[in-house]
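We modelled the chain as a single entity of 209 amino acids. Its sequence is:
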Amino acid sequence: MGHMLFIDQPLNVGFSYSGNRTGTQQVSSSNEGALHLVNFLYNFYREWPKLAASPLYITGESFAGHYIPAFAREILLNETFKAATKVNLKGVAIGDGWVDPINQFNYYDSLLYSAGIISNKFREDDYVINTAGVLNYLNSVNWNYISNWKRARKDVWRINNQIRGWAKTYGNLWFVLVNRAGHLVPTDQPESAFNMFGHFVRDDRNWNQ
């Protein structure tokens, strides 16, 4: 059995509030937000210590592409927190994430042009995260095995013999494209989203099912 924990983050977003929505109590950076999340997890595991042994997956979408890497990094580097909680961080998953604006933003015009939406290539910033931009930043990641990732094959992803997209994995780095889905994949394609996450938590790389 797994447990799902939803967090409104950063502070003063949604139901996460401090009583003061102005001034010095506002979060000003992803790293500051990460410290708040680690503090939250510390208190959570102190209240329910048995859950600390369960595999922890941090997930989110869109602008969480900024917060999730910072959160995971803080967990991995915070030796005091790890010693106190024995946290078992297994992975992070970012859906349609705004992670690296420099390497993502320049692909909006290419996306619109290749889709036949515009006749001339020009900058248009009303469109959400696109596949070409995400792949561009993944190919730019500073990682010892990035050349292997670039050469990794794309596997067609099927559910009950129906093509749902494709996946590319190497080591701990995964990319999955979900067919007929917009910015909110679980809303547009809930069955595919559920199946994809199952592959991830089981480390199941057999996509032809």
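As a brief sanity check on the tokenised model: The chain is about 40% helix and 15% strand. The first strand starts at residue 55 and ends at 61.
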